[in-house]
Amino acid sequence: MGLRDRRKRQTRQEISDIATRLFTERGFDEVTIAQVAAAAGVAKMTVTNHFPRKEDLVLDIHEEFIARLGEVVAGRTPGESPLAALRRAYFEDLARRDAMLGFSSPSFARLITESPTLLARLREIHEEREAALAAVLARETDEFTAALTAAHAIAVHRALFREVQRRTLAGQDADEIAAALEPLAVQAFDALQRLPGAD
């Protein structure tokens, strides 16, 4: 990555961090894009160039989040089934307490769950993730089977994501949450593996 790209990424991250702090302090609907720009010391257009949607100032890793599961399946090792790859990747991410699984601070989790706008955007992102995963799966099977498999896999990820959020809001720390999630994830992925055509 060149210097210009690094500076753009740094600016983007700084804007997102400042916006998230303002939203957490005042509420998502109470802060405008102009206020974010002023706090970040940039023009309003700079904010909207990096974040066309206000919600994505908070959900700033949405592109990586949407692409992640499709990339896991596309990059899996020879002989590994798609669901086995998704299972492996989930537990790798769980060991890292990855933000893509829902790990965050209580204040951030509260910001998301208390905003209908952010919850609606999060649902859209999960749906976009499902479509992206189905597109990758469809390279190896028919479209209906790919769509069905993706729908089941995303349902598991969404349920586990919500559980992380719920436990975060209940005051559990990341290690407690990961310990509690492990058997739930085993149960969920075992159920996925029993679906017809899972292998």
UniProtKB/TrEMBL annotation:
This is DNA-binding transcriptional regulator, AcrR family. The lineage of its organism: Bacteria, Bacillati, Actinomycetota, Actinomycetes, Pseudonocardiales. The keyword DNA-binding applies. Residues 32-51 bind DNA. Pfam families: TetR_N. Residues 9-69 form the HTH tetR-type domain. The keyword Kinase does not apply. Keywords: DNA-binding, Transcription, Transcription regulation. One of its GO terms (molecular function) is DNA-binding transcription factor activity.
